[in-house]
Amino acid sequence: MAHIVGPEVVKYACTCGLLKPISLLYFCRYCCELRCGFCVCHEVDSHFCGKCCENLPSSEARLKKNRCGNCYICPFCQQELSTRIGSKGPSNPEDPKSTPKKMYYLSCLYCRWSSRDVGIPDQGAATGAWPERENVHANRLQEVIEAYKAFVLAQKQQKEREKKKQRGKFVSYTDRTGVTAAAIRKRIGLPAEVPNTYYRNRPKLPEPATPREEVEDFPEELLTKSLNLLEITTIEQRLLQPDLQPTTVDKLFPIHKQLSIKRSLRCRSCEHNVSKPEYNPNSVKFKIQLFAYYHIPEVRIVTVEPLRAGKPAELILKLTNPTQHQTVITFLPLDLTVRGGDGDREVGETQSLSLPEKQPPSLGGQPSSLLSLSSRQPSITIKPRPIFQSTNCQVAIPGSKVILPPRDDAAEYDDSGDSHNIQDDTKLVVWRKSNKVFVKLVVTPDDGLELNTEIVAGFTMQHIYTNTIATTVENKEPDRHDHNVRVFLTLGNLVGCE
Q: Which of 273, 299, 353 is nearest to 26 (CA)?
């Protein structure tokens, strides 16, 4: 089976130290760093129903328990229920002018379950209110919820009173003159300690639950009669209705469809959005879409020779430039330097790697426009963490660079040939077309490895990134600087000798 971005044999190292495929990473153009799902803040923009596309404010969604009031799902297979039309006989069969009345019921097109199976009467309107099964413990649950809400409100009011008391240095005139309020209260015959208003106005506790002494006897039918598992609900079906938890399928009622959300992702370091969808639930477009797939060159494995311990093998990679600007890719050794408080030290390849602190780019340092954009203090400081991925294969780093032209959608259907006239190193570049290129590398697994050992190789890919938003009034040209990405390749298992 062919995969576009999987299986996950090519992984990129995020700033936090996790290894993710390029399809699960984001790229912050203000920090010029890769971000994964743990390096961004998730913010809910809107709630909507995926079937009727109705937008709901957060307060109303919370009141409806994050469920749509008009759409239902099947309690048997959890698929969406459709409204079907049925006919009802005329009210007066003797009258020839009376016509059959249209009636509506819910039906599942997958498992053929319908609302008639559980005895729900048909409705005269397609959007009619379908009857729901009442919960016998609804009053008790509402009583407990109201009690906890009163406790939260009382604690909030108590904190506000304590803040008002701490505003001035001297609360009253007696504290300023040295005569305490407790002494005055004792002199006039009042208790010295003032009772706390929180305990005085403490909300009433709900009545405690009382256990029942009389319980139902164990039904003997479970031991004498054969059990039909088709009539018993599964654990998943019971948990979909936690207030009722029906045990048999004849007590399954339609369930309101759960609401979906649209969320925006914000970088934890500079607090800029890396992903923001449109508010309209019918639209699948994004206002901000900073996926790494559109900014970082993509690396794919084309072919690899059989891997043997201590013997070189040929590896062909496919590099793709997704941006509208030309870039230059340079292969560098995988950085194994761990930077900590005790200085720099070298570690072996079998030890865990660590992402270093953010270093200035090689083209004259960090651009001034980027410094101005990220000058504010971040709310959360992201510290580098070690990469728990060992490498057991050496990659021969080529000395020449690879030039990738900008992406051209029309060139995908042009068979006239390459028109860029780039002088490539024939030992490195195997094939080229438009913004894609095949490069040949030589990898050598370590000696002493056992058979069927998974071979993992790594290198640092340096590419020139053109930042179009980091422009100032004085310099309207886009900033170009080097950006390093650590790439890890899973090449397969080690085979035997020739």
A: 273
Which residue type sits at 149?
Answer: K
Cβ–Cβ under 8 Å, residues 274 and 265: yes
Predicted pLDDT of residue 227: 82
Cβ neighbourhood burial of 165 (10 Å; 0-12, 13-18, 19+): exposed
For residue 392, give every residue at least 6 positions away whose Cβ sits within 8 Å of its Cβ, in sequence order, or none. 349, 350, 445, 446, 449, 453, 455, 456
Cβ atoms of residues 418 and 424 within 8 Å: no
Q: Are 109 and 82 in contact (CB under 8 A)?
A: yes
pLDDT of residue 444: 92
C-alpha to C-alpha distance for 84 and 370, rounded to whole angstroms: 59
User: How long a stretch of residues is the chain?
Assistant: 498
Taking CA atoms, 134 is separated from 118, 131, 279, 424, in Å, by 14, 9, 36, 75
Query: Which of these, 341, 338, 260, lies nearest to 54 by C-alpha position?
Result: 260
> Which of 314, 294, 280 minimizes the C-alpha distance to 34?
294
Closest-CA residue to 333 (of 239, 215, 434, 460): 460
Q: CA 227, CA 231: separation in Å to the nearest integer?
A: 9
- Cβ atoms 287, 278 nearer than 8 A: yes
Q: Among residues 116, 57, 105, which one has the least CA distance to residue 81?
A: 105
Low pLDDT (below 70) residues in the chain: 1-6, 91-93, 128, 165-182, 184-185, 189-201, 336-385, 411-420, 470-476, 497-498
Cα(275)–Cα(378) distance, integer angstroms? 18
CA pair distance 425, 399, nearest whole angstrom? 10
Return the structure tokens found at 472.
């100032």
- Cα separation, 113 vs 118, in Å, equals 9
Angle, CA 254 vertex, CA 252 and CA 257 arms, to 5°: 135
Instruction: Find the helix or strand (DSSP H, E) in which 155 lies.
Output: helix 138-165
Residue 123 CB burial class (10 angstroms; 0-12, 13-18, ≥19)? middle
At residue 370, the pLDDT reads 46
Give the burial class of 148: count Cβ atoms within 10 A of its Cβ; 0-12 exposed, 13-18 middle, 19 or more buried.
exposed
Cβ neighbours of residue 464 closer than 8 Å, sequence gap 6 or more: 327, 328, 363, 480, 481, 482, 483
